[in-house]
Model the fold of this input.
Amino acid sequence: MIETAAIVFTLALAFGLAAGALLLRARRAVLQRLHAAEQGRAQLELQLTAFRGAIEALAQALARAEERHALLAERIDAVESAGEGGQPYGDAIRLVRQGAAETRLVDELGLSPVEAQLIVRLHGARAH
Done:
């Protein structure tokens, strides 16, 4: 009977040790996965911080571009207003808005071909 009890005890001890070893391996695997997940989270936080910085920089650049656009639009309006009253550019702008071609501006108003081309590009139907 003592031998049977010793065998049962030995088997129970062996089973307990094997189960403990399996639990330790499982714990190590879980800890490794947890560590990998923490590293991934840290990487994502770094990327998120970088994206936030890039978004802020883009927002600032966009604000500056919008300010420049508004200033340029004001300047263009001022130049157009002044140009429409001056000769021959005011007449040229009016004619182009009515559909005149570059050659008409050169022939009738004495503009250079480069001036006529510029006025057509700025004020022609395709410019709007």
